[in-house]
Design a protein that fits this description.
Elements lengths: L29 E4 L9 E3 L5 E4 L4 E5 L7 E5 L4 E6 L5 E5 L3 E5 L5 E5 L1 E2 L2 E2 L3 E6 L5 E5 L12 H11 L4 E7 L4 E9 L2 E6 L5 E6 L4 E6 L8 E5 L4 E8 L5 E8 L2 H5 L4 H7 L14 E6 L5 E7 L7 E6 L3 E6 L4 E6 L17
Antiparallel strand pairs: 1-26, 2-3, 3-4, 4-5, 6-7, 7-8, 8-9, 10-11, 12-13, 13-14, 14-15, 16-17, 17-18, 18-19, 20-21, 21-22, 22-23, 24-25, 25-26
């Protein structure tokens, strides 16, 4: 087996209580067809009102402002995951197979970064443009490159079962074209989001069920701390929303079996020799949360019956939340007006 599991200690899983109380608010969403595409892992809303989403098939797809069916826009190749729009007007893409790509508004594509400090980028996962003009890219794992291990999902399972800590965060300056590692030793480094100011970024560490704050400017530059821990599921993408807050997607609930075997690496290796249907896999349970700059949970939206599933994140506008997914054949749109509490202060609110 390729995995060499290590001993680790998971945080306590309190489940869907308190800030994470079960509700069905995500089921109020409208499903926007992706046509022949699937897996809108990330989405962005352009100033024009058009929505751009990544796809499993290696394309960026576009929904016009009227939000009809998605149409193919730009073929990127590989497996594009994270997206952000820079102050330079370009779209920046974390492509798991290729590295960091740039797409201009005419649809021209260029590969900008595929190595850092003499090492190849193995699993580019998410990207954020910061106010300081730099890009921050997560390289999820050095152990299990997505393309070499059957795709992003199979590679992520191997990495999480092994619980290696080779994930890292890369800072890239588009002007000087210099790149450096600013945070290492992460267990599957995933979502990245930049603050409205230029002083910090937030990073999801999927394998540890937590969110980091990393200071990139100011007196605390280079420091980092966990601001949200013991999540009830595996955090995926994170994106800045409105009013300085952030939206984070929970792609699947935590696995009790995986947590119970955290101190038993041999049994985890045996588990990966079992038939595929007996191995760990993502459960169909949708969940996204809104958090403040200090990690406080402000909103909690769920789909316990799996009507929305493998939820990876949110792109927010004044009127809507666009809910992304690792595997779904649709992008979900949730109108804020359809929520019971229009202010989105929906922690623990039950949909009737």
């Amino acid at each position: 087996m390729p995995v060499e599991p290590v001993v680790w200690k998971p945080s306590i899983n309190k489940g869907y209580v308190a800030d994470y109380s079960r509700n069905s608010l995500l089921n109020r969403s409208t499903k926007l067809s992706m046509g022949n595409f699937s897996g809108p892992e990330a989405a962005i809303v352009l100033p024009s009102g058009d929505v751009i989403a990544t796809s499993h098939e290696g394309w960026l797809v576009k929904y016009n402002k009227g939000l009809g069916q998605a149409v193919p826009w730009v073929e990127l190749g590989g497996r594009p995951l994270g997206l952000d729009v820079g102050a330079d007007g370009n779209i920046w893409v974390a492509n798991a197979y290729l590295g960091l790509q740039k797409v201009d508004m005419s649809g021209n594509v260029s590969l900008v970064l595929d190595e850092v400090e003499g090492t190849a980028i193995k699993y580019a996962d998410d990207v954020a443009w910061a106010a300081n003009g730099k890009l921050y890219l997560s390289d999820a794992t050095m152990r299990f490159p997505a393309q070499e291990w059957g795709g992003t999902y199979p590679a992520s399972i191997l990495d999480i079962v092994e619980h290696d800590t080779t994930g890292r965060i890369i800072e890239f300056d588009p002007k000087s074209r210099q790149a450096k590692i600013i945070k290492a030793d992460l267990s599957f480094a995933n979502g990245v989001a930049a603050s409205l100011s230029d002083d910090y970024i937030l990073v999801n560490e999927t394998g540890e069920y937590r969110v980091w704050k990393i200071w990139i400017e100011g007196e605390r530059k280079g420091e980092s701390e966990v601001i949200l821990d013991a999540l009830p599921g595996f955090p995926d993408n994170i994106a800045r929303g409105l009013n300085r807050n952030f939206w984070l997607g929970i792609v699947s609930p935590r696995s009790k079996a995986m947590d119970d075997l955290a101190g038993k690496p041999f049994l985890r290796k045996v588990m990966m020799r079992l038939p595929s249907f007996m191995q760990p896999e993502a459960k169909h349970y949708g969940m996204v949360i809104e958090i403040g700059e200090d990690g406080a949970v402000l909103s909690n939206l769920q789909s316990p019956n799996g009507e929305l599933f493998t939820t990876t994140g949110v792109a927010e506008t004044d009127e809507s939340l666009f809910i992304t997914s690792l595997t779904a054949p649709f992008l979900a749109r949730l109108s804020k007006a359809d929520l019971k509490d229009p202010s989105l202060k929906s922690k623990g609110a039950e949909s009737k």
